[in-house]
Description:
The complex is a heterodimer of chains A (431) and B (318). Chain A has 431 residues and is an alpha/beta fold. Chain A contains 14 helices and 16 strands. Chain A is 31% helix and 22% strand. In chain A, helix 2 packs parallel to helix 3, helix 4 (160-173) crosses helix 7 and helix 7 (209-225) packs parallel to helix 8 (237-248). Residues 427-431 of chain A have low confidence and may be disordered. By secondary structure, chain B is an alpha/beta fold. Chain B is 37% helix and 14% strand. Chain B has helices at 27-44, 69-80, 101-109, 125-130, 148-162, 180-191, 220-226, 248-255, 259-264, 285-288, 295-314, and strands at residues 58-63, 84-89, 115-120, 136-142, 169-173, 195-199, 215-217, 229-232, 270-272. Chain B has a five-stranded parallel β-sheet with strand order 7-6-5-8-9, with helices on both faces. The radius of gyration of chain B is 19 Å and the shape is globular. Chains A and B meet through helix 6 of A and helix 4 of B.
Amino acid sequence: xxxxxxxxxxxxxxxxxxNKRVDILIEKGVITKVAASISEPKGARVIKSKNLHVSPGWxxxxxxxxxxxxxxKEDLHSGARAAAAGGFTGVLLMPSTNPPIQSKSExxxxxxxxxxxxxxxxPAGALSVHIKGEDITEMFDMKKAGAIAFTxxxxxxxxxxxxxxxxxxxxxxxxxxxxYANDPGITGNNSVNxxxxxxIAGFKGTPALAEEIFTDRDIRICKYAEGKIHxxxxxxxxxxxxxxxxxxxxxxxxxxxxxHHIFFDDSMIAGYxxxxxxxxxxxxxxxxxxxxxxxxxxxxDVICSDHSxxxxxxxxxxxxxxxxxxxxxxxxxxxxxxxxxxxxNVGMMVDLFxxxxxxxxxxxxxxxxxxxxxxxxxxxxxxxxxxxxxxxxSRSYNTPFVGxxxxxxxxxxxxxxxxxxxxxxxxxVVN
Amino acid sequence: xxxxxxxxxxxxxxxxxHLLGIKDLTVSDIQLIFDTASNFKDVINRPIxxxxxLRDITIANLFFENSTRTRLSFELAEKRLSADIINxxxxxxxxxxxxxxxxxxxxxxxxxxxxxxxxxxxxxxAIFLSKHVDCKIINAGDGTHEHPTQALLDAFSIRERTGxxxxxxxxxxGDIMHSRxxxxxxxxxxxxxxxxxxxxxxxxxxxxxxELGVKVENDLSKALNWCDVANVLRIQLERQDIRYFPSLxxxxxxxxxxxRILDKLKKKIILMHPGPINRGVELSSDAADSGHSIIxxxxxxxxAVRMAVMYLLAGRIN
Lengths: 431, 318
C-alpha cells in the first residue's frame, strides 16, 4: 500500500513540519517521506483536498462495543469500523460487557479478536468484581495482559472505602483509575436532569448535586492517596469548578466531556425522544456553557464519544423503559468541532482528540515523521456537511444527530498498515 | 340542541389532534371545551341523558394502570355520546407477556378503532404513542406527567362557582412531585389567568416548580388563608418509590385538613379533591362532607368535560 497525502497541514506532531503544509508518503504503513513536494509514485493512492489536515491518530477514551454479550448491538469489528469512520485510530473499551472485562481472559479475548482491525482497541478492566462495587479485581494480572485503565464504567463506586483501595492499588501497579462521579443515593432511577424541563415533562430528575458530591469525594480520595484520577463524562458546572480548583492545588486530576453534552442541553427531552436519554443526562443551558468554556480554558482535557449502541427494541419505547446512550463515534469530532469553532483552533482539537487521551493513559504519542509507523487521522476542520443515516457505520442507529449540519469532517485514518477512507465524503472533498 | 350533533367540518375546532396534555392547548381550546361541556352538562341532567353524536365512532379505553373513577367517567361519557366502546386493562392483557405498547395499540386499531383513551404509568407515554399510531389519543394520565381531563374538569368546576378563573387564587396541596393532577392543573389555571400556589412538604415539591409561575408555601395555614380554592391531592404512597415523609400520622399533623381548620379561616374557601379521598389523611370526614366541598360536583362535571373533549376530537376525524 502506497499513499500520498498532498498538501496536508500537519497538526499536533512535534518537529519542523508542525503547522506546515507538506506532502506525506506512506509505504507499507510507514512514513517514508515528508517534504514540501513529492511527485506521485506509481500505484499510489493520492489524497488531495483544498483544506487537508493530518494529525496523530485520534483516541476515544470511552466506547462500548457490547462484545461479548450484546453483539446484536455492536461487536469489536463493527465498533472498530465506526471508530475508523469517526477518525479514531485508538479507543479505550469500557469493561461493562457481559461478562464484564474483569480478568486476564476477557482482556485477551478483546485483544485477540481485534488484532486485525485498523483501530487499536485498548481494554479498560473493571474496577470491582462483576462491577458490583464490593471487591477490587485482579488489576495487576489484567494490566499484564493489556488492560490500560480501570473503571466500573457507568456504575458509580458507592463505597468510598473501595474507591480509596482501588486508587491505591492502581497507583501501585502504575495504571489509570477512571471515576464515574454520580452519587446513586441522590440520582436514584432518574434519567433526566433536574430542572425546569424535567418538571414540565413530569420527571423527578437527578440534580447536578449528585455529580458534585462524588467529584468532591474522589478528588479528596485522590489527594489523600497521592494518586491520579481521571473523571469520565463530566457534565456540570459545579464539578468543573471542583476539578479546576483541584488542578490548581496540584492534585493529579484529568477529565473528559462527551461531544453530546457540549452540543445539547436538557430542553431536548421535551418530546420524550429516547435518543436524548443518556447517562449522565443532558444538563442545563448554563452547564453546557460552562463545559464549553472549560474546554477552551483547558480544564477539560479530553472529548470522548461515550459510544453506546442500543438496538431498536431498547430505544423505541416509553422514555422510562428505554436504555440510555447514543452512538457517538461517527459524530463526536464533527459535533465538538462545530460548537467549539474548532476550525479556528485546530491545535486545541488535536490536543483534545489525540494528544491528551494518550498522555492520561500513558501511551506513546504517534509522530508524523520519516521512519515512523503511520498512525494518523486525515480531516478537514472547515468542511460543512449534513449527517445522515447513510453516515452511520455502527451496527446500531441510536443517534439524535441525523439531519444535523456540522462543520468539520473526517476523511480517513491510516493505522496498522491500513487505510480507511470515507469514500462518500472524499468525493466531496477531493478536487 | 346547538353544537351537539356532530358535523364534519365543524366551525369551531380544537387546535390539537389529540389531547395529550394541557401544555399543548390554547386559551380558546380550553374555552371551547368549557362551552361544549356546559351544553353536555345540560344533556346529562335531562331525562334522556344520551345524544347520538358519536354513534359512528369506536373508542378503546386502555388502562395500563389501575383506575376506577377515571375509567368509569370516560366510559359513561362515551355511552352518553352513543360511541361503541371496548375496554382493556393491563392485568388482563398481553402486556405481561412482553408485548410492546405500540403492538398492543396497533392490534386494537386493526379492529377499526377511532379513538384511544389511555392511562399509563410512564411520563410521555401518550406522546410516544401519538407518534407511532394513527388514531385520536386522549391522555387519561401518564405517570407523573399530565392528566388533562382532570385539570379541565377542576377548572370547569371552579369557574362554575366563581364565574371566572381570572384572578382566582387556587392552592394545590399535597404530593406535588408525584402528581400529574398538579402539573395539569398548574398549566390549565395559569393559562386561564388564575393565581396558583402549591403547598406540601419540601420533599414532595419539585425544586424548580416556581419557574412555572406558581407560589410555593410549606405552611398549610398560610396557604389556606391566602386561597379562594384549595385542591387537595390524594397522598399516593403507591407512586413513591422511597419515603418522602416518615409516616402518614406525621403528614396528617402537618397537612391534614379538618373542619376546625376551615372554620378558623377568615373567608369560606372552596374545597376540591380529585378522588378517591383518603379520609382521615389529607381530608377529615367533617371537612370532605362540609359545605366547603364541591367534590361531588367535580365528579359530575367530569362526565360532561370528557364528553366535550371526545366530541371535539371526533370532529377532527376525517
